[in-house]
């Protein structure tokens, strides 16, 4: 396999999706072969109680993991899955709300419409998880996540009430039923594609969301088999739980290499690249950029150190986002940030450096009621001989940055 493809698969964590497909294939084989034995067991068990316990367990795992992994996608995944389970219990048990048996009525309009609507909404939720930022303010994420559970439940119940009370709704329901599977496949495909475009520089979580989408898509083909659907919901909970632990373990190593303030790689990781211990596949021709915030001491003196930390974080994120996908971004020290550009010539690196410089200017840092304008200087150099003399290359980068600072700042200077 080509090394670049292998690196992409490793970054995407494709092995978790493959594991899910293997588990799903095994599940299908066992269920199809032994369903006559499984059905009586499920009939005896109190499935509602089991799903409630599983929901509680999933939520606890997501909540406990959040302050340790500090990833919003994990927390929001737990809440939307629990909302999905609770709505399923309401729909499948024909529970009355305000003395109205809304679910039974909607199923009279079209069989399985309520369940299909629930699955379709969960598809959209998984797509939304891919699109939300991985890292947001801790307290903001903690406060927003329960809202996702409440919103999903209120939305589903409101839609059910609407379809029950609205006149001339049969045409819409028939149209929804006709295109339900097609739209589900399209949403699944969008989740897969966007997860590939949203691979983070650190341990990727998108593969876990895609794995849940795979199970949900599979469930769409067996929506009329109530017992199999019930088993698939438990399987989905197991996949999320295993996925969180899988991500957690992968993040332990990552946290040791990560700057907790800037959310980019730290000096230790950078040293690993320079020493050849960490292989980031720089290529035969690669470039290095060194970015330094202009007059950073003035920011601290004028606005305070909390504002200074905010500026550092936002600038680091802008540099990281602009440098991706070929850039590996590390904190060099203080307000200096280094960028390793894989397979980039000096001209390509200069173009990328100018984009970084312009992006930082374009995004003033918001702190309380203030808007802090930030400028950076960038020095760069390129190698055509691989990493064999990377220390000498770093010295050129330092000299280029010094020249940029000395000749007016807010500019890009590339070493000859």
Mean pLDDT: 84
Residues in helix, %: 55-70%
- Compute the number of structural domains: 2
> How would you sum up the major sheet?
5 strands, mixed
**How would you describe the shape?**
elongated
Gap between N and C termini, in Å?
A: 36 Å
Q: What fraction of the residues are assigned to beta strands by DSSP?
A: 5-15%
Number of helices: 15
What does this structure look like?
With 416 residues, the protein is of the alpha+beta class. It folds into two domains: 3-256, no CATH class; 267-414, Reverse transcriptase/Diguanylate cyclase domain (Alpha-Beta Plaits, 2-Layer Sandwich). 68% of the residues lie in helices and 9% in strands. The protein is built from 15 helices and seven strands. It has helices at residues 3-12, 14-44, 47-69, 72-92, 102-109, 113-131, 138-165, 170-197, 206-220, 226-256, 267-275, 296-303, 305-323, 346-362, 390-406, and strands at residues 286-293, 327-333, 336-341, 365-367, 370-372, 376-383, 412-414. The strands form two sheets. A five-stranded mixed beta sheet has the order 2-3-1-6-7, sandwiched between helices. Strands 4-5 form a two-stranded antiparallel ribbon. A hairpin with a 2-residue loop joins strand 4 and strand 5 (370-372). The protein starts with a helix and ends with a strand.
Q: What is the topological layout?
A:
Blueprint: H1 3-12, H2 14-44, H3 47-69, H4 72-92, H5 102-109, H6 113-131, H7 138-165, H8 170-197, H9 206-220, H10 226-256, H11 267-275, E1 286-293, H12 296-303, H13 305-323, E2 327-333, E3 336-341, H14 346-362, E4 365-367, E5 370-372, E6 376-383, H15 390-406, E7 412-414
Parallel strand pairs: 6-7
Antiparallel strand pairs: 1-3, 1-6, 2-3, 4-5
């Amino acid at each position: 396999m080509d090394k670049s493809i292998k690196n992409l698969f490793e970054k995407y964590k494709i092995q978790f999706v493959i594991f899910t497909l293997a588990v799903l294939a095994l599940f299908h084989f066992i269920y199809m072969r032994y369903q006559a034995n499984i059905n009586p067991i499920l009939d005896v068990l109190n499935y509602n109680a089991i799903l409630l316990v599983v929901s509680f367990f999933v939520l606890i795992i997501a909540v406990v993991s959040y302050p340790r992994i500090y990833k919003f996608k994990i927390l929001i995944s737990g809440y939307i899955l629990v909302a999905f389970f609770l709505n399923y219990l309401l729909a499948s048990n024909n529970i009355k709300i305000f003395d109205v048996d809304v679910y039974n009525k909607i199923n009279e309009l079209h069989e399985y419409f309520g369940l299909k609507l629930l699955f379709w909404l969960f598809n959209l939720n998984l797509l939304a998880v891919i699109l939300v930022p991985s890292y947001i303010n801790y307290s903001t994420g903690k406060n927003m996540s329960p809202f996702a559970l409440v919103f999903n439940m209120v939305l589903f119940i409101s839609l059910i009430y609407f379809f029950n009370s609205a006149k001339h709704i049969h045409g819409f329901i028939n149209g929804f039923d006709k295109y339900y599977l097609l739209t589900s496949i399209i949403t699944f495909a969008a989740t897969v594609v966007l997860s590939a475009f949203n691979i983070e520089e650190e341990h990727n979580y998108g593969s876990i969301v895609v794995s849940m989408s795979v199970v949900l898509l599979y469930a769409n083909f067996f929506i009329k088999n109530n017992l199999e659907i019930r088993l698939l919901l438990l399987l989905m909970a197991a996949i999320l739980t295993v996925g969180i632990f899988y991500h957690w373990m992968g993040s332990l190593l990552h946290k040791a290499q990560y700057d907790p303030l800037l959310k980019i790689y730290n000096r230790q990781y950078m040293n690993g690249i320079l020493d050849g211990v960490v292989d980031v596949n720089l290529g035969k021709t690669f470039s290095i950029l060194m970015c330094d915030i202009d007059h950073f001491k003035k920011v601290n003196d004028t606005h305070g150190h909390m504002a200074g930390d905010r500026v550092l974080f936002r600038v680091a994120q802008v540099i990281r986002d602009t440098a991706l996908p070929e850039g590996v971004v590390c904190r060099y020290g203080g307000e200096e940030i280094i960028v390793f550009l894989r397979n980039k010539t000096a001209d390509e690196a200069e173009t990328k450096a100018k984009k970084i410089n312009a992006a930082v200017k374009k995004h003033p840092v918001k702190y309380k009621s203030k808007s802090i304008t930030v400028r950076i200087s960038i020095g760069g150099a390129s190698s055509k001989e691989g990493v064999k003399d990377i220390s000498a290359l770093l010295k050129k980068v330092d000299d280029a940055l010094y020249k940029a600072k000395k000749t007016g700042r807010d500019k890009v200077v590339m070493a000859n």
